Amino acid sequence: MRILFIHPNYHSGGAEIAGDWPPAWAAYLTGALRQAGFDDIHFIDAMTTRMTDERLAERIAEIAPDIVGTTAITPAIYTAERVLKIARETAPQAVTLLGGVHGTFMYPQVLAEAPWIDAIVRGEGEEIMVAIARAVAEGRWAKDRAQIRGLAFLDGARVAATPAAPPIRDIDSIVADWSLLDWPRYNYIPLGVRVAIPNMARGCPFTCTFCSQWKFWRDYRVRDPKRVVDEIEGLMRDHGVGFFILADEEPTINRKKFVAFCEELIRRDLGILWGINTRVTDILRDEKLLPLYRKAGLVHVSLGTEAAAQLKLDLFNKETTVADNKRAIQLLRQAGIVVEAQFIVGLENETAETLEETYRMACDWKPDLANWSMYTPWPFSDLFRELGDKVEVFDYEKYNFVTPIMKPQAMERGELLDRVMNNYRRFYMKKALFSYPWAGSGARRRYLLGCLKAYMKAGFERTFYDLGKVAYWGPQSRKSVRFGFDASRRRAEDMPADWRAQPSRKRGLAEPAGLACGGGKAQMETGPDGAAAG
Fold it and tell me: What whole-number distance in Å separates Cα of residue 334 and Cα of residue 28?
């Protein structure tokens, strides 16, 4: 039996300005399938190769698969639906599958839009994918699909959903098959090396109102740090990887295991640089450990400072303060770690003054990098429902952090985009002239200059922030920007209430209480030595 995975060809000018990222989902599913005895597995990365629909149809016909699977985050959902329509037309005998966070929660709408999808895999996919492959191989898919947990599909005109599959308890049993990927394609522009995105944990113990990680993975589980380093060492040895970013939302939550991970990297002396996203509160907590983290190769930390105005921090259920954000950035820079501050802009109460305030805060805090992201209310998040009629755009292709989904009361979307671009221009002009060239020597300086190169490349190619697509050329064009929202898209009905997160108390987690990843009091419990339990 032949299985084909396809990564959809969706681009938005966001994180991809730093390079082409390897689709880890396909490697993890392939690892599980190979362990179960399925070896005829193929992969098409239509995104990295910018593959046209016509060429994709040709490749599907050449491979002649029995199963075609793809994935979709929210902005890629329409592209993923189109991928499976092409598969249905080209290989009508194949079972078509969609996985990923959007389909997990929005499956009634997705199946109504794309009835050619045979099933949606909801949540963690490895064990579900193996069950599907066995059913198809044994000729019992049509008869037994309702017995496979974690699926949604059309049963005639009715949308059917089987009970959720339990989270994979032994997370260390999940072994990715990275050989599936064509590694020379995955280049990290700031360093000019191959990049990987392994994960150390799945899930999150915190319940951010705007996030989906805790909902999708349903339980927080952390891998054995030595096994994670084994994986990284294998990526370096077998595939020439020279930089990695941990895919976890907040890998420092479990301090004990994160410290063990760093110590193992130091012990093996792998000499690889890497980056993470994490919480301001964790940096403050780990002030004395930051030199250890840097020694282990940690060179880039992206902090969810989110917003300069305290009122926005409160809206996102944060308990960090503006002063905490500034202190965390100072600590990281003192440790020789490149720090990136993340700002969320574009809420309904955004004004010219609040946007200017984020720029002043960035200048005052002195992060090495700053990123202004448009507020994007995931349609399956609690905050989306709370916003109600304030959300007017339901064209999910634009839910990409670079398109203004919310319209501020005080300005048009074109003005919002222009003021954000003005922040970028001023911030990076100062950095290019007065900071990066004089940032000492060694890895940190090379890294910063590489980041500047990535920004400049995306700017000249007009891929940054999708500026080319929306016809933004500077302040003179802010009134003529074309965001191209599809007005025919409508709000989905509330998602079925059949999906529950399972925060684990036995790992020593405090009760999640609507706190956000940029802050909050909840921490992993610590033992007498100050290390996190679990």
Answer: 37
